[in-house]
Amino acid sequence: MLDARLSCCASFVRSGSLLADIGTDHAYLPIWLVQNKICRSVIAADLRQGPLDSAQKNILSAGLQQHITTRLSDGLTKIHPHEAEDIVIAGMGGHLIVSILEAAPWIKDPQKRLILQPMSDAPIVRRWLCENGFDILAERAVHCGKHLYGVMHAAYSATVLQPDEVFYRVGRMSDGGADEQAYIARELRRLQEKVEGLQKSKFAKQSTEDLQDMIRKIQTILQCMEEKV
Fold this sequence. Notes:
- It is a single chain.
- The chain contains 8 helices and 7 strands.
- With 229 residues, the chain is an alpha/beta fold.
- It has 2 domains: 4-161, 3-Layer(aba) Sandwich (Rossmann fold), CATH 3.40.50.150; 178-228.
- Strands 3-2-1-4-5-7-6 form a 7-stranded mixed β-sheet, sandwiched between helices.
C-alpha cells in the first residue's frame, strides 16, 4: 500500500504510460503502479546507490524485475527522452526540482507529463513552470501523517504565462476540496506571519503593502471555496 502522499502522485499517472520515478528511494511507487497495471514499464532512478539497492531488493521480492529497471541518475541526466512519458519527482525541495527540470530540456514535449511534489518552496516550482511554457493542469493537496503535501500535474504548452503572485502561492489548489483549503490556509498563515515579522522589525526595508494585498486576495479565495462546500 502507498501512503497518502505517494497515492496522490499515483493518481496523476496516465494509464499505460512509461514512467520515470526520480528519487525513487524504496521503489514503492513504481511497484504499486506496475502491480495495479497502470504503468507497463518504469525506471526507478536515484542519485545514491544505497536507496537503489533497497529498491532493487523490493522489486525482486515483488517479481517485477521485467517491468521495473533501477538506474543511478542525477535527476533526469541518465534518462533518455523515449524512456519516459510521465515523470514523477517527489519528496524534494522546490529548488532541487527546478534544477532537475532545467537540466533536461527534452521534457518540453506536449506529450509528456510532470508530476511534482515539492517538500518546500512550491511557489518557486510554479513560477519556473509558468515562465518556461508549462501549463499546471491540476493540483491536489493531501494530509499524510501530521504533514500536508501538495502535488502538481503539468504539461508543456509552449505558452509562457505570467499570472499574479497569488497564483504562485496557491496554484490551482482553489479547484479542490478540504485538503486544498487547508493548504491555502497554511500559505495564508505564512504570509500573515511574514507581515507581522516585518512590521515588528525596526530594520525591515520591505514594504508590507503588496503582501497585505496578497493576503486579502487569498482570504477571498478561501471564502469562495468554503461557500461552495
